[in-house]
Amino acid sequence: MKIAVAKEIEVCERRVSLIPDIVAKLIKQGLEIYVETGAGEKAFFTDADYEAAGAKIISDPATLWGEADIMLKVSPPQEREDGRSEIDLLKTGSVLISFLNPLGNPQIAQKLAQRQITALSMELIPRTTRAQSMDALSSQASLSGYKTVLLAAAALPKYFPMLTTAAGTIAPAKVFIMGAGVAGLQAIATARRLGAVVEAFDIRPAVKEEVQSLGAKFVEVKLEEETVAAGGYAKEISEDSKKRTQELVAEHVKNSDVVITTAQVPGRKAPILVTEEMVKAMKPGSVIVDLAAEQGGNCACTAPGKDIVWNGVTIIGPINLPSSMPVHASQLYSKNITALMQLLIKDKTLQVNFADDIVDAACVTYGGEIRNQRVKDALQAVVV
């Protein structure tokens, strides 16, 4: 069985789907690993590293994609500079494992189904105890949460910690984190390590204990509707609840030196948590880092992929933050994707077992059809 590692061609993608250490372990299991020339360069893994691990380096993308039984990627398939689609390069009947954004871009699932590709989306790994080792969304979100605080600290014209000096006492920075998922919790922990006073908000009351355990104050709003979606994610709430939430957080945003927003809804535009009015009320020199920038942003003033100054407030809208730390991001992703492959490969043979809840949830296309109902619904909405 031939497992291939593609070179990511998306401009802002520096990660690689398998690192040499993991390649060596897979080869010891009797698997053949093929790596596209330069696949690991942006993550500081050379072709020589992969060769030393036992992989075969392939310079021709058409050969790599056309002969692979399982193709491993980080970002969804792209259009190449030569005009060829990566989907069209795949061998009919082969397997693709990658982030696919199937809810945000369901057309990609349609194309994969038409090519008879068995596609497994790393975004759709269920959030269960058994699937933790495969949960790439969580591993990458943790990196984002860490890096976002560093970006905020670098942009803030103040210290984060409280300092007592001969010239007087410096008050600690006030950080307000909106969303206490994996990224938010890592942001809380990082901001606390840097010495900031931290408050955190989430519409899910169940995360209160986790927030407090990290040393932050939990800002709670009581809503008369369900706020937790499948898998433990925050659920999109009604307009009335959004209004009540904004009224509650407005004062906290106003009094904060740094605001970090992390709220995202899979397949939908990110909810606006910080309005223009809230930004106007913030102190000049304050900083907002919007981790939902790729989905439009939680702040009404966010410019995805750009750092801007709006009414004296620096607003950072980073894109693909995990890719800015490609060494560890690739290491974690490699372990996630390898754990998933262990479910699919038995005795060197591919076995797609839909009786397994993880495989069933992650598999988007199989046998020429889209299997996931949420993806089907998203595609129908686009067509209509």
Highlighted features:
8-stranded mixed sheet, proton-translocating NAD(P)(+) transhydrogenase, about 375 residues, alpha/beta, oxidoreductase activity
The parts where pLDDT drops under 50 for at least 5 residues are none
- Oligomeric state of the chains present here: single chain
- Which structural category fits the helices and strands? alpha/beta
Gyration radius, to the nearest Å?
Answer: 22 Å
What order do the strands of the largest sheet run in, or round the barrel if closed? 3-2-1-4-5-6-18-19
The residue-averaged pLDDT reads 93
Total E-strand runs: 19
List the helices and strands and how they pair.
Elements: E1 2-5, H1 20-28, E2 32-36, H2 47-53, E3 56-58, H3 61-67, E4 70-72, H4 86-89, E5 95-98, H5 107-114, E6 118-121, H6 136-155, E7 163-165, E8 168-170, E9 174-178, H7 182-193, E10 197-201, H8 208-213, E11 217-219, H9 239-254, E12 258-261, H10 276-281, E13 287-290, E14 307-310, E15 313-316, H11 326-344, E16 345-346, E17 349-350, H12 357-362, E18 363-366, E19 369-370, H13 373-383
Parallel strand pairs: 1-2, 1-4, 2-3, 4-5, 5-6, 9-10, 9-12, 10-11, 12-13, 13-15
Antiparallel strand pairs: 6-18, 7-8, 14-15, 16-17, 18-19
Catalytic activity: NAD(+) + NADPH + H(+)(in) = NADH + NADP(+) + H(+)(out)
GO molecular function, one term: oxidoreductase activity
Enzyme class: translocase
